[in-house]
Design a protein that fits this description.
Number of domains: 1
Largest sheet: 5 strands, antiparallel
Structural class: mainly beta
Helix content: under 10%
Strand order of the largest sheet: 3-2-1-4-5
Distance between the termini: 24 Å
Number of strands: 5
CATH architecture: Beta Barrel
Shape: globular
Number of helices: 0
CATH class: Mainly Beta
CATH superfamily: Gp5 N-terminal domain
Length: 70
């Protein structure tokens, strides 16, 4: 498991998933990443910093957004 910093690029409130950019990489964007349900949808604003928990370092799609912050 690994926790990485990122930035919210977009949020799908219907599916409760996000597209996030991993910090330090201009080309790595993860799409359809599940968002923890304890994060209010109003907090998932594009441009906010987020914490991404990666369960499997070899599979970046196996992740979840666990926090957002300013």
């Amino acid at each position: 498991m690994d926790v990485r910093r990122g930035e919210v690029k977009s949020f799908n409130s219907g599916a409760y998933t996000a597209t996030v950019q991993v910090a330090g990489s201009l080309s790595v964007w993860l799409s359809d990443v599940p968002v923890a349900r304890n994060i209010a949808s109003g907090e998932m604003v594009a441009g906010r910093s987020c914490a991404i928990l990666l369960f499997d370092d070899t599979n970046p799609q196996d992740a979840v957004v666990i926090a957002v912050y300013t």
